[in-house]
Specification:
The chain is of the alpha+beta class. It has two helices and six strands, in the order βαββββαβ. The chain has a six-stranded antiparallel beta sheet with strand order 2-3-4-5-1-6, covered by helices on one side. Helix 1 packs antiparallel against helix 2 (93-104). The two termini are 16 Å apart.
Length: 119
């Protein structure tokens, strides 16, 4: 009898709305938040890059992880952020999302969970 298959990784796509605009404009703060989230998930950070589009404007950024990545795009004018968390191995992407959700405090959070590949 063969061993049960497991996904190569779990990919979470989160649409978060109703967020205070002030939480969505500071690239350094968002970088720090995603770093904390990655560490909470048990992931190892390899590199990060975050960009702000100007005062009061949104941020786009990504953490490259040994286990894959976390990215975020923010629209403060709409109180909206889209996060993409993909992790493989023993990392736990839901822990990262829980921490991001607790920090940004959206009024709604819609999540798609995708099992990527089968091992």
């Amino acid at each position: 009898m063969s061993a049960p298959h497991r996904p190569a990784g779990i990919h979470l796509l989160a649409d978060m709305a109703g967020i205070d605009a002030a939480l969505l404009v500071d690239a350094d703060a968002i970088d720090a938040l995603l770093r904390t989230a990655a560490e909470a998930a048990g992931a190892r950070i390899l590199h990060s890059h975050f960009h702000t589009f100007g005062p009061g404007m949104g941020v786009t950024g990504v953490l490259l992880l040994a286990e894959s990545h976390i990215s975020i795009h923010t629209w403060p004018e709409h109180g909206f952020a889209a996060a993409d968390i993909f992790m493989c191995g023993d990392a736990q992407p839901q822990r990262a999302l829980d921490l991001i959700d607790a920090a940004l405090m959206p009024t709604t959070c819609s999540v798609q969970t995708i099992a990527r590949g089968q091992l």
